[in-house]
């Protein structure tokens, strides 16, 4: 799974020499130290690592939410680093889906409008069949007219997943998407995400602290001190827990 | 708790900027109003007191002293002055008396006021600036500022006459300081030697007062004077000390300025109500945002009262800061204005800035109280929350603030009752009833605002948004917190309603007056040369000249004469004033064709005729009567008819010119036109009259009033717009995460700014729209109530001005959204998402 095996453009998302630091002088924090990483299409990847290791920063940079200091990021064959704010916004709108830990939905509009939001922003019509497929898969059929505050936490996350999948983006990013859910609802959401990679061919990249969540992924990448320090293929709860423990040493 | 409050203000400083600004402007308005009042008084005292500056006692005819029945009281005269000077304890005495005269210098003529001056008697209260006092009968003083205007200096000779005395030459021997008394300072003041003046003015001339300087005990002299006047049967003479007299004069003159103060106070009150709404809104938001923090304090053991008092201390500090700043602003403004007045209007050099301690303290107290009371409402609401409820993660999607049932019922009653009174008052033409109706119904409607403002904002927002997501979100966001939206919009609605009411009322008043005045005049403009002997050739020439003026369509001449009538009913020979015209010329200028006479006809107003009157004997001739529905001041005949009539004033009478004016001219153009006619004809302004002239004058008066009132109300609108900006920036702060989420999901910076702009425009525009609707209704009903007694109403709505109000509100709302929009779009999505 490293960048040497395939040319960058053949991956859904890839980055080279990604560097990012916060603050100045004495308060300077090196959040990313020249990270090289590539994510193949139709795979579910989890990023793990101790708190402060740079997981969120990496994800934000890859998703065009934040700008890296140096390096190269490619999504679907396009170079993110050379884009201005509007182009990045268009990129996020059309090629990237998001599922955040909390506060995923715009509270004033109902579930359906939330799901359709990126498409409406782009002024595009949605593919009715695809919409129905996603809604059925996520079991949201009878929740579409509810406002976010009328939905449970799990339902809210599922709406967010539906929104992320609906545009058929190049990649879906999730920053601890199950962090606020109990283990059962968390499991529901995770298996949905896995199904979408298996059955719909969706590329998913997820940051998590939870070995159980990571075990749903095809690959786990390990981070420490702003660097990638290893990966686990076909992870299990046990293998992930072990790897994390060895990282902490 | 003080340090907590201080820390909070520091932390949330940005949120309080708008509150401080609004409260400061509101209190500044109030303070300025009070300062206007005290300053007017001081200024008047300063100027009115000028005449008695060094005097002890003033004796003057006091008409408020009831004269005892039967006995006729004698008038004050100059002969009393001679007696007064002989009284015990009187060291000097002089009369204050102004008699009008006409001065001709080498190049011009002026109307002047003459007054007696005696070199031995304090110079009659004058102050010499140059030269000496007039000692001989042919010497005069002139006041220095008018001397400059008249181009007269010491040593010059001028000619002076009055209506009753022939012109005589006088030598200017000195200049005196100009009077600052506003009642007389408009005219040049001529000081004449006392004896010469008495001859000039006539010995029966009634001086306005006799001013006395006492050499002994003032009380004794006062009694002496009183006894003297009683002995002389001068019943109405009051003797007051100079100070008392000034106070009395000021009181008499400031009746008007007190009314001005009352009017200004009403506007200040409006501004303060609007300010209150802004304050309530801000504290609502600030406290809502801190609900969790406050709840945490509660769970940690803080008592409800402690927390509430901490919020109130915050409000108190802000109130003090803002009110003091506002009062300082007002004082600075007034001082600046008076300074400007001193620089640009030298004759107002006596204008004084006067501040009373009360006038300074009241606005501060009002400002503080208003802030604290406005803050206490949201504070109380927040405190009601149980500590745990507040700690639970809460979704701020939409806050339901249910309008209290009581408020709705009360508002409904006020609205319905007020509307009924307003309708009745308008129908019956009873202004007081309509006024009370307005006074009740408007607050009633404001109480009900929560029922219709948010739904209007949302409905119009959705309509405007069409398929744009940002637009839809803007509409949703605009009514997310209906209470806040209502308060923000209401603040603006108040100002816009009042402004548009005044505009519509004023316009309708103008149109109605136009109509009723036009009906009263037979022609547009009448130039009456009543100071000249009738001279047909000269008048004809003048008519030609006038018709050449731009804007004049036609002109013709007329002659005024009084025909002899022998009415069998009345014993004495009576005369009837007639206007004689050339029928061909008159037809072209007459506003109503029914008033053009034929030879042998007299046009008379039907209302004054016995029904069925067919003929009338006038000046020895029997004339056919032509009835006219138009109201005329005089009856009209032709020149040829007049020649056959016997007139009272065979040789006198006067002529003049009748003018028809281009109907498209507006009041300003007509004002100019009248100026030109005055100049061309070489007449005084009052000799030019007519419907158009009256209209122009009324229109101008109404326009000036409208401008002033609109400017005063603009303060309320300004504060309301600060409120819009405030609400929006608070919303932006509240919705940081949501806006970041939208940015993450693909909302461009520009779209985000546009979304906020739409939100502001929605609130501002809908508030303005509702205000316009209300204002038009109130304006029409108010005008109807005020003017329907004057005849037919002509309703006129100034669409353009109203459109301007709407556009200004929308543009201002747009401007108000700039800063919050910029702040929102500057935040990167990540930063926003991280924010808690
Ligand atoms: N806005 C910021 N300003 C300054 N430093 C930051 C900022 N964001 C992150 N950092 C720092 O960068 C480093 C990486 O942070 P990051 O949020 O990427 O960690 P993480 O792996 O997501 O941690 P966690 O598991 O706790 O979420 C940390 O040391 C953090 O303190
Ligand atoms: Mg993180």
Automatic annotation (TrEMBL), chain A:
- Enumerate the UniProt keywords alphabetically: ATP-binding, Nucleotide-binding, Transport
GO MF terms here are:
ATP binding; ATP hydrolysis activity; transmembrane transporter activity
Which SUPFAM superfamilies does the record associate with it? Answer: P-loop containing nucleoside triphosphate hydrolases
Q: Name one Pfam family in it.
A: ABC_tran
SMART domains assigned to the protein according to its UniProt record, in alphabetical order: AAA (SM00382)
Q: Where is the ABC transporter domain?
A: 13-248
**GO CC list:** membrane protein complex; plasma membrane
Asked if tRNA processing is a keyword of the record, the answer is no
Is Transport a UniProt keyword of this protein?
yes
Protein name stated in the entry: ABC transporter ATP-binding protein
TrEMBL record, chain B:
Metal-binding keyword on record: no
Provide the protein name.
Answer: ABC transporter permease
List all membrane-crossing ranges.
16-36, 262-288, 309-338, 350-375, 408-427, 433-453, 487-506, 704-733, 754-779, 799-818
Lineage, top-rank taxon, reads Bacteria
Question: Which compartments does it reside in?
Answer: Cell membrane
List the source organism: Glutamicibacter uratoxydans (Arthrobacter uratoxydans)
Predominant cellular place of this UniProt entry's protein: membrane
Gene Ontology cellular-component annotations: plasma membrane
What are the UniProt keywords, alphabetically? Cell membrane, Membrane, Transmembrane, Transmembrane helix
Q: Which GO terms describe its molecular function?
A: transmembrane transporter activity
Q: What family does the database annotate?
A: Belongs to the ABC-4 integral membrane protein family.
Spell out the InterPro entries in the cross-references.
ABC3_permease_C, MacB_PCD, Macrolide_Exporter_MacB
Q: Which parts of the sequence belong to the MacB-like periplasmic core domain?
A: 19-227
Q: Where is the ABC3 transporter permease C-terminal domain?
A: 266-387, 712-829
Q: How does it sit in the membrane?
A: Multi-pass membrane protein
């Amino acid at each position: 799974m490293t960048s040497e095996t395939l040319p960058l453009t053949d991956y859904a998302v890839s980055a080279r020499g990604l560097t990012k630091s916060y603050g100045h002088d004495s308060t300077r924090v090196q959040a990313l130290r020249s990270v090289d990483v590539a994510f193949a299409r139709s795979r579910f990847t989890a990023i793990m690592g101790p708190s402060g290791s740079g997981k969120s920063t990496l994800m934000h940079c890859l998703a065009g939410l934040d700008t890296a200091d140096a390096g190269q990021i490619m999504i679907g064959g396009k170079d993110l680093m050379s884009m201005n704010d509007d182009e990045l916004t268009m990129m996020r709108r059309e090629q990237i889906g998001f599922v955040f830990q909390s506060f995923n939905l715009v509270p004033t509009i109902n579930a359906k409008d939330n799901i359709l939001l990126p498409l409406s922003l782009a002024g595009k019509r949605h593919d009715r069949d695809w919409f129905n497929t996603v809604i059925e898969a996520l079991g949201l059929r009878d929740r579409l007219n509810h406002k976010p505050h009328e939905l449970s936490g799990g339902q809210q996350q599922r709406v967010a997943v539906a929104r992320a999948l609906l545009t058929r983006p190049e990649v879906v990013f999730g920053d601890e998407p199950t962090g606020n859910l109990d283990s059962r609802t968390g499991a529901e959401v995770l298996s949905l995400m896995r199904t979408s990679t298996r059955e719909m061919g969706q590329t998913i990249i997820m940051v998590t602290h939870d070995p159980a969540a990571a075990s749903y992924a095809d690959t786990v990448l390990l981070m420490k001190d702003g660097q990638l320090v290893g990966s686990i293929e076909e992870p299990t709860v046990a293998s992930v827990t072990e790897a994390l423990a060895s990282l902490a040493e | 708790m003080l340090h907590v409050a201080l820390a909070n203000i520091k932390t949330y400083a940005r949120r309080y900027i708008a509150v401080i600004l609004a409260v400061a402007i509101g209190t500044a308005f109030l303070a300025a109003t009070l300062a206007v009042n005290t300053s007017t008084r001081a200024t008047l005292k300063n100027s009115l007191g000028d005449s008695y500056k060094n005097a002890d006692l003033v004796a003057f005819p006091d008409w408020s002293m009831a004269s005892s029945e039967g006995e006729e009281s004698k008038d004050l005269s100059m002969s009393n002055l001679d007696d007064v000077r002989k009284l015990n304890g009187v060291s000097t005495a002089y009369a204050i008396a102004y008699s009008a005269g006409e001065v001709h210098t080498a190049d011009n003529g002026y109307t002047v006021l003459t007054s007696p001056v005696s070199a031995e008697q304090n110079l009659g209260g004058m102050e010499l600036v140059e030269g000496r006092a007039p000692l001989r009968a042919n010497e005069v003083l002139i006041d220095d500022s008018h001397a400059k205007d008249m181009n007269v200096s010491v040593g010059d000779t001028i000619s002076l006459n009055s209506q009753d005395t022939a012109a005589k030459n006088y030598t200017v021997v000195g200049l005196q300081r100009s009077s600052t008394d506003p009642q007389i300072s408009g005219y040049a003041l001529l000081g004449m030697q006392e004896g010469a003046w008495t001859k000039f003015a006539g010995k029966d001339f009634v001086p306005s007062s006799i001013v006395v300087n006492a050499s002994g005990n003032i009380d004794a002299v006062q009694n002496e004077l009183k006894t003297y006047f009683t002995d002389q049967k001068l019943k109405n003479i009051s003797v007051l000390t100079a100070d008392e007299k000034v106070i009395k004069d000021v009181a008499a003159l400031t009746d008007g300025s007190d009314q001005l103060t009352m009017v200004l106070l009403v506007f200040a009150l409006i501004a303060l109500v609007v300010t209150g709404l802004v304050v309530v809104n801000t504290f609502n938001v600030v406290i809502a945002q801190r609900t969790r923090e406050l709840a945490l304090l509660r769970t940690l053991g803080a008592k409800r009262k402690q927390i509430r008092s901490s919020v109130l201390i915050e409000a108190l500090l802000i109130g003090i800061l803002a009110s003091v700043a506002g009062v300082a602003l007002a004082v600075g403004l007034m001082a600046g204005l008076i300074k400007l007045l001193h620089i640009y209007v030298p004759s107002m050099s006596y204008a004084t800035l006067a501040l009373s301690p009360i006038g300074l303290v009241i606005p501060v107290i009002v400002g503080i109280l208003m802030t604290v009371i406005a803050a206490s409402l949201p504070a109380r609401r927040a405190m009601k929350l149980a500590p745990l409820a507040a700690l639970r993660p809460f979704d701020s999607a939409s806050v339901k603030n249910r309008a209290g049932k009581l408020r709705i019922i009360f508002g409904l009653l006020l609205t319905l009752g007020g509307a009924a009174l307003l309708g009745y008052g308008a129908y019956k033409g009873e202004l007081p009833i309509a006024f009370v109706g307005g006074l009740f119904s408007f607050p009633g409607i404001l109480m009900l605002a929560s029922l219709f403002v948010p739904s209007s904002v949302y409905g119009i927002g959705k309509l405007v948004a069409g398929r744009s997501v940002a637009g839809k979100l803007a509409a949703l966001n605009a009514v997310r917190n209906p209470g806040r939206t209502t308060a923000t919009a209401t603040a603006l609605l108040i100002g816009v309603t009042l402004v548009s009411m005044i505009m519509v009322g004023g316009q309708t008043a103008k149109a109605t007056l136009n109509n009723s005045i036009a009906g009263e005049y037979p022609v547009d403009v009448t130039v009456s040369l009543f100071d000249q002997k009738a001279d047909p050739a000269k008048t004809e020439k003048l008519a030609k000249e006038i018709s050449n003026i731009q804007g004049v369509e036609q002109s013709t001449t007329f002659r005024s004469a009084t025909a002899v009538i022998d009415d069998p009913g009345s014993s004495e020979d009576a005369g009837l004033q007639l206007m004689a015209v050339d029928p061909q010329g008159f037809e072209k200028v007459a506003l109503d064709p029914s008033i053009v006479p034929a030879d042998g006809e007299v046009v008379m107003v039907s209302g004054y005729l016995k029904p069925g009157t067919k003929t009338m004997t006038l000046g020895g001739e029997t004339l056919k009567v032509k009835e006219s529905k138009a109201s005329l001041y005089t009856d009209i005949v032709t020149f040829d008819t007049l020649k056959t009539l016997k007139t009272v004033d065979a040789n006198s009478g006067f002529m003049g010119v009748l003018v028809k004016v281009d109907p498209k001219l507006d009041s300003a153009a007509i004002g100019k036109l009248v100026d030109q006619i005055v100049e061309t004809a070489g007449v005084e302004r009052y000799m030019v009259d007519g419907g158009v002239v009256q209209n122009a004058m009324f229109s101008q008066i109404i326009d000036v009033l409208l401008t002033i009132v609109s400017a005063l109300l603009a303060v309320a609108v300004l504060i309301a717009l600060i409120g819009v900006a405030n609400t929006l920036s608070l919303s932006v702060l509240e919705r940081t995460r949501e806006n970041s989420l939208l940015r993450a999901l693909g909302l461009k910076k520009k779209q985000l700014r546009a979304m906020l702009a739409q939100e502001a425009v929605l609130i501002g525009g809908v508030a303005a729209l509702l205000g316009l609707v209300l204002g038009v209704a109130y304006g029409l009903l108010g005008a109807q109530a005020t003017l329907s007694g004057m005849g037919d109403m002509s309703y006129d709505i100034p669409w353009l001005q109203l459109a301007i109000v709407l556009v200004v509100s929308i543009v201002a709302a747009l401007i108000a959204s700039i800063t919050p929009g910029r702040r929102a779009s500057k935040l990167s999505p990540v930063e926003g998402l991280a924010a808690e």
